[in-house]
Write a structure and sequence with these properties.
CATH class: Mainly Beta
Largest sheet: 9 strands, antiparallel
CATH superfamily: Exo-inulinase, domain 1
CATH architecture: Sandwich
CATH topology: Jelly Rolls
Structural class: mainly beta
Strand content: over 45%
Number of helices: 2
Distance between the termini: 12 Å
Number of domains: 1
Order of helices and strands: EEEEEEEEHEHEEEEEEE
Helix content: under 10%
Radius of gyration: 15 Å
Amino acid sequence: MQTFNFESFSTLELLNVRAELVTYRGHPALRLLEQNMMKEEQNIAILSDSTFKDGIIETAIAGSPRPDAPMDMRGFVGIAFRAQPQGSHFEYFFIRPTNGRASDQLRRNHSTQYCSHPDFPWYKLREESPGVYESYTDLVPGEWTDIKIVVSGLRAELYVNRAEQPCLIVNDLKLGKSQGQIALWIGAGTEAHFSEVIVKPLE
């Protein structure tokens, strides 16, 4: 088992994000904001000392739209894995917290998402395979949300808030059986908080 607790920024490779150590809702946390909200870039903080192929990633995340964000921002926040150097390629799961309790059922169905950077962004997956790479789960903006990601070969499962069953299953990870690093991911217009990341071998 390996634990990453962000006590030093020297363990993070920041790509288009600003990082700050804070206390959030009573817990030590790493806050991430986009360095430049106008740039269409991936916003990630790579855990420099991590090496990951198969295993279990556990953490708690919180996301909400920034006060200055456009109205269609959802507080996107997630975890990337098997990231290649400088974040050139990676797989990731993320949540859209403001969708979790929306009155529009279609928005609720878009609460969780799998993507693979750079060739399989959310809009391509949604257009080509509607409903396959995203699903509903209950979410509240700004609240701590427990996340568990289980990866084995070409398969990955996302568990939210300690549920016994995954809310999203992917059987065809787009980067294949690759190996890389773990990263913290945020989307456009988001203020995100991350607790420590724990990596375990497969059970």
